[in-house]
Structure prediction request, 126 residues.
Amino acid sequence: MEKKRTRLRPISRKRHNYFYLLTAILTLILSGYILFNFSPQSAFEISELGNFTIKIPLILIFLFSFSIFIYSLTTFLFFRKTQGVIFIAFIDSYIIMRLAGLTHWIFLVLVIALFVTVELFILKKK
Prediction:
């Protein structure tokens, strides 16, 4: 009896979208500028007409720009936008837990287990 040889599909070679690389570089520069030049307690003030001012903490601007950097970099490297979103959620949740004072190693293990499970669930659905 002759064994049938299964033919492996070639890995599809997608072209890199350099828009994501450019976005990653620009947001990395912005995140580094905020990280090295401002304290975490400082805020960005927007003055409106009259005596009404809006204060936006710079930590939120940093997290937003850092999230865009991570998303752009992972999308550029792995070609999948869902992996970028999952990795952003992992990094941001861990940073927020560290800022909240949850610094025990078991929290990192739980977050890793959660996001590995989500990644496997999404890969299984495809």
About this structure: Residues 58-78 form the longest helix (21 residues).
